[in-house]
Amino acid sequence: MNKSNRVLVCAFLVIVVKICTISATCSDTIMSQMQSIFVQNFTQNRALAPLCLRGAFHDCWNGCNGALLLAEEISRSENIGLEPLKTYLDPFLNQFPCVSVADLINSCAVTAVKFLGGPDVPVTFGRIDTGVPDPNGLLPAGTLNVQELIAAFQPIGFDSKEIVTLSGAHCVGVCQGQPFCPGQNTTFGNHYYTQLLNGEFEGKLQTDMDLLQDNTMKSVVQQYATDQQQFFDDFATTLGKYISRIQCNQTSNGPCPLDNSGSSSSQSSTSNSSPPQTAGNTPPSSGGINNPQEFPPFGLPNSFEGPNSFPSSSQGQNGNPTTSSGNNFFPAFI
Ligand SMILES: *[C@@H]1O[C@H](CO)[C@@H](O)[C@H](O)[C@H]1NC(C)=O
Ligand SMILES: *[C@@H]1O[C@H](CO)[C@@H](O)[C@H](O)[C@H]1NC(C)=O
Ligand SMILES: *[C@@H]1O[C@H](CO)[C@@H](O)[C@H](O)[C@H]1NC(C)=O
Predict the structure, then answer these.
(1) Which residue in 323, 317, 322 sits closest to 303, CA to CA?
(2) Whether residue 252 has its Cβ less than 6 Å from ligand 3
(3) Which residues are identified as catalytic?
(4) Which tens digit of pLDDT belongs to each residue from 182-226?
(5) Considering only CA atoms, which residue is closest to atom 8 of ligand 1?
(6) Phi and psi for 37 in degrees, rounded to 5?
(7) Rounded CA gap, 250 and 253, in Å?
């Protein structure tokens, strides 16, 4: 084969690979069909909605990669309470073979936020499943103090304001049988923040109450308590950013934005008429591999690895790992 033929063959292979990528992503129509089934199911069983939201937090902490629904990962203590999510979502994978697990979880999550009365969270589809469990024990525990919480989110590119914003997800759902926001846990709203300011700590985690210990974070709590629209706007942006962090593959050393250069469909969670949106970040025009400028490096220090290990409250980041009781920052919603 001469040199120019080799170039042609290589170009052809690249195109075939690209087509395979495209066919692995569902059309907008299919994604909409799926979302309407989610809505039917949430209508029957409202508690499924916060379950999907929690699932997205867990699957995407280390980059959205679908590993959460692997038997080995779902059964970890940090995922206590999420087994029903696997039971719920697995049948969709047979019914819609085009969907990746990571897209399925995130489609369910943004539909859930909207269903519960929250904002349209921008979501783009085209996530690739790794098929390999994430390292154990990466998720932050609900028992962290505020400095530890900030330190846990920093490596994945979220600042203290964004932690306050994401914590607002605790306006819905229950933790180990008790609602975070007693009496108000069934609709999305800013009541989580008003309850914190009113000292209504029933159902709250250490990580919730401690938001008041940091002046910057407390001022954000106060802002959201008086301005629900601001909370909704920020939540849409911040959750959108969170769920757009993907791992291209196991060996890539950081998150990468979704490749939006033709292979991914893109839509807002409910409104099909709105223009395609991405999560506040413009994907690169090609590749979609690591873009450390937009997505700071992630992957946590080695001290976070090991079975469900987090620094205990009396130790710094490099303290000996302790075993969490499953009382994590993204706790059980059953
Ligand atoms: C979800 O809704 C679909 C369509 O109505 C239904 O076939 C399916 O059984 C529901 N799933 C659950 C878990 O309720
Ligand atoms: C709200 O809390 C109750 C328990 O008080 C629980 O049964 C219900 O499923 C929760 N609803 C949601 C949407 O989480
Ligand atoms: C995975 O990412 C690494 C590093 O970016 C790259 O060298 C490798 O070719 C990728 N593998 C696949 C299967 O895409």
Answers:
(1) 317
(2) yes
(3) 58
(4) 999 999 999 999 999 999 999 999 999 999 999 999 999 999 999
(5) 41
(6) -70, -40
(7) 8
Q: Does residue 254 register a pLDDT over 60?
A: no
CA distance 84 to 93: 15
What's the CA gap between 251 and 55, in Å, rounded? 24
Q: Of 219, 239, 263, which is closest to residue 169 (Cα–Cα)?
A: 239
Q: For the chain, first and last CA: distance in Å?
A: 62
Assign 3-class secondary structure to 134-166.
CCCCCCCECCCCHHHHHHHHHHHCCCHHHHHHH
CATH architecture for segment(s) 26-298+325-332: Orthogonal Bundle (1.10)
Q: Which two tokens stand for residue 141?
A: 């525990």
By most ligand atoms within 8 Å of CB, the mutation choice from 130, 251, 295 for ligand 3 is 251
Q: What is the mean pLDDT of the chain?
A: 76
| pLDDT, average across residues 134-139 | 90
| Ligand number, closest to the Cα atom of 256 | 3
Question: What pLDDT digit, counting tens, does each position of 263-306 carry?
Answer: 333 333 333 333 333 333 333 322 333 322 222 222 222 222 22
Describe the crossing of helices 101-115 and 48-60 by its angle, rounded to 10 degrees. 130
Which pLDDT score is estimated for 258? 59
Give the residue, by CA position, lying nearest to ligand 3 atom 12: 249
**Tokens matching residue 329:** 């920052």
Tokens of 206: 């250490």
pLDDT exceeds 50 at position 168: yes
Q: Match 């009382």 to its residue by tokens.
A: 327
Tell me the backbone φ, ψ of residue 255, rounded to 5 degrees.
-75, 160
Q: Where in the chain are the domains? A: 26-298+325-332
Q: How far is the CA of 94 from the centre of ligand 1 (A)?
A: 14
CB 283 within 8 A of CB 258: yes
- If phi > 0 it is left, if psi is from -120 to 50 it is alpha, else beta; for residue 74 that is alpha
Residue 50 has pLDDT above 90, yes or no: yes
- β-pairing, 321-323 vs 309-311, is antiparallel
pTM of the predicted model as reported, rounded to 2 decimal places: 0.73
Q: Is 249's C-beta closer than 6 angstroms to any atom of ligand 3?
A: yes
- pLDDT at position 307 over 70: no
